[in-house]
Design brief:
Layout lengths: L3 E7 L3 H14 L5 E7 L16 E5 L6 H10 L5 E5 L3 E2 L5 H7 L5 E9 L9 E2 L4 H8 L19 E2 L3 E5 H7 L11 H11 L3 E12 L9 H15 L2 H9 L1
Parallel strand pairs: 1-2, 1-4, 2-3, 6-10
Antiparallel strand pairs: 4-9, 5-10, 7-8
Helix pairs in contact: 6-8
Length: about 250
């Protein structure tokens, strides 16, 4: 059994996937891992003949599926004690797993994530408070800017962390039922962290480790992705999960 199962989903992004696999090979030699690579659309693997020092299980999809369904299916193939969701556009400078595993030693923590920075080293807004309709509207009109949490030399326990990099104990991801497949794209991470919170778990952003996110911000430039983003927000705000969160406060 591997200690960590890493789920990566490619949407014609195998050039990015190859860079990430090379980063994992270079930085994570001390970790026992397996990679589960989901090809959500047909594409040729440029690294098909290359040997990596960790097993790679490849899932070929005949019909494209959403973020939640793809990672949930990958989880069904995962043998690791921990399950890690990682976007293809993540870059590593160091091994993130020792610090994340340390955060997850606390049984009250259901999910651990690194801090996320941009290509120029700027802190990205990957740790946030739960959204509200008012805050979404405020952001649309260019207000309510700024970060929700100040990063200090200690672990942060935010409401939710971005889905570009999340790590769970295998047992917790199974207990929570994985991602809600009713979300095709966007808000899966918000919903899952909300359900973890309602289940008595904490979300941890581990200050000791950071990763680079080469963010594409697709919803800002493509109307179809923007539509999915808006519909996912409505779905979350109308869900029993959000009502329970509001009642809890």
């Amino acid at each position: 059994m591997q200690q960590i199962s890493i789920s990566i989903v490619s949407h014609l992004q195998c050039s990015l996937v190859e860079k990430l696999l090379v980063d994992i090979e270079r930085c994570c030699k001390a970790s026992s891992i397996e990679v589960i690579l989901t090809l959500n659309m047909h594409e040729e693997l440029p690294f098909a003949g290359r040997s990596f020092p960790f097993p790679i299980k490849t899932i070929h999809k005949s019909t494209p599926q959403g973020f939640a369904a793809n990672h949930n299916q990958a989880f069904a193939h995962a043998s690791g004690q921990f399950f890690c969701v990682m976007n293809p556009d993540i870059r590593l400078n160091d091994n993130p797993f020792p610090a994340l595993l340390s955060c997850l030693q606390n049984s009250s923590v259901g999910i651990a994530a690194p801090l996320v920075v941009g290509e120029s080293g700027e802190m990205q807004d990957s740790v946030r408070r739960f959204p509200t309709p008012f805050k979404i509207i405020c952001r649309v009109f260019g207000r309510c800017k700024g970060i929700d949490y100040v990063v200090k030399d200690e672990t942060i326990f935010p409401d939710w962390v971005g889905g570009m990099f999340m790590m769970f104990p295998h047992s917790v991801f199974r207990e929570i039922g994985g991602f809600d497949t009713g979300f095709f794209l966007y808000y899966e991470d918000v919903d899952l962290c909300a359900r973890l919170t309602l289940g008595g778990y904490r979300v941890a952003a581990c200050h000791e480790v950071s990763v680079i996110h080469e963010a594409r911000r697709t919803s800002h430039a493509n109307l179809r992705y923007l539509w999915w983003h808006v519909m996912s927000a409505f779905r979350f705000f109308l869900s029993p999960v959000y009502r329970q969160l509001r009642h809890r406060k």
